[in-house]
């Protein structure tokens, strides 16, 4: 009876150990997918944010940078799907699976710093903001998102208050999640103060770009921009 009990206990222990190893291996794979897909998508994000920054200079400069960067990530729908949507989908799927499979004790709020929590929460926010952004720019409208079309959306469709609030939230969450997450994925190569300084600098430049979209930085140029609004009205 004792021998049988010992054997059963040993078998159960072995099974539990095998299950734990399989779970650990699966978690490690998901983390790698999360990290590398995030790194890949951050390349697109950097180009996208750089384009937003250029709106602080002039409408024509924005359109020029937009066309130049699109040659890298949108030469065709197939390439765009491969370099933009595939990494984004993989990142979101991996993150969801990690969230569902990670033990509560491993994700306890008390075990994370404020900055790590902000990274997590900004990711949750982007889970809703990014699909909304994709729908609005790629499916809801057929125009090419040139400066005039975005100004039209901001002023005529969303309204300045709602539109600026949305874009500020999208930009803030996107930049913070990307830069802080990139440092995590690369093994914390940069010290936190330097990472935060980079985030602040990029956001400041990005906010100036949003002010450009709203027409506050060069009001004399906005007359010609608003003359194009009629072609975007439905």
Shape: globular
- The total of beta strands comes to 0
Low-confidence stretches: none
SS content category: mainly alpha
Q: What is the rounded distance between the termini?
A: 82 Å
Q: Please tell me how large the radius of gyration is.
A: 23 Å
Instruction: Supply the number of helical segments.
Output: 8
Largest sheet: none
CATH fold-level assignment? 3 helical TM bundles of succinate and fumarate reductases
- By CATH, the superfamily comes out as Fumarate reductase/succinate dehydrogenase, transmembrane subunit
Tell me the CATH architecture: Up-down Bundle
CATH class reads Mainly Alpha
Number of domains: 1
What would you say this structure looks like, in words?
The chain has 234 residues and is mostly helical. Helices cover 79% and strands 0% of the residues. The chain is built from eight helices and no strands. InterPro entries: MCP1, SQR/QFR_C/D.
Short description:
This protein has 234 residues and is mainly α.
What is this structure's SSE topology?
Elements: H1 2-54, H2 59-73, H3 77-101, H4 114-139, H5 147-158, H6 160-185, H7 192-213, H8 222-226
Descriptive terms for the model:
SQR/QFR_C/D, 8 helices, mainly alpha, Mitochondrial adapter protein MCP1 transmembrane domain-containing protein, 234 residues, transmembrane helix, 3 helical TM bundles of succinate and fumarate reductases, single chain, MCP1
């Amino acid at each position: 009876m004792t021998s049988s009990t010992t054997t059963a206990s040993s078998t159960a222990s072995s099974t539990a150990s095998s299950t734990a190893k399989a779970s650990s291996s699966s978690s490690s794979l998901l983390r790698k997918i999360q990290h590398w897909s995030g790194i890949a998508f951050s390349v697109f994000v950097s180009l996208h944010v750089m384009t937003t920054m250029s709106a602080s200079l002039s409408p024509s400069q924005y359109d020029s940078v937009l066309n130049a960067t699109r040659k890298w990530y949108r030469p065709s729908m197939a390439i765009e799907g491969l370099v933009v949507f595939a990494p984004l989908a993989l990142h979101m799927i991996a993150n969801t699976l990690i969230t569902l499979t990670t033990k509560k004790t491993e994700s306890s709020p008390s075990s994370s710093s404020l900055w790590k929590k902000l990274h997590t929460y900004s990711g949750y926010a982007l889970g809703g903001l990014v699909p909304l952004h994709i729908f609005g720019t790629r499916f809801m409208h057929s125009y090419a998102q040139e400066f005039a079309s975005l100004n039209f959306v901001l002023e005529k469709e969303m309204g300045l208050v709602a539109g600026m609030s949305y874009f500020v939230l999208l930009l803030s969450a996107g930049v913070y999640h990307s830069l802080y997450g990139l440092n995590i994925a690369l093994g914390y190569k940069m010290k936190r103060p330097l990472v935060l300084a980079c985030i602040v600098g990029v956001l400041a430049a990005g906010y100036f770009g949003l002010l450009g979209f709203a027409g506050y930085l060069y009001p004399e140029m906005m007359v010609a921009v608003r003359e194009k609004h009629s072609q975007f009205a439905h």
